[in-house]
Amino acid sequence: MNRRNLKVREFLRVLKKYGCVEVRSTDHGAIFENPKSNKSTNVPTHRPILAVWIYHNILKQLDINKEEFENFF
Q: What local confidence, expressed as pLDDT, does residue 44 receive?
């Protein structure tokens, strides 16, 4: 993916499609858990755009392969 920024709503939709579960929603974002690796992280939702470095960090924290994840877009 050669995007500089990604829409948060689209990213959340693809996370759910991948199989991640939204555990809860907070003021700062949504807590998602990957049932395959049993890891969780916060996805910031207070801005409409997600920076690409945050996107990479979220995938790393949830232990998701980037190439496999991008097939769901």
A: 95
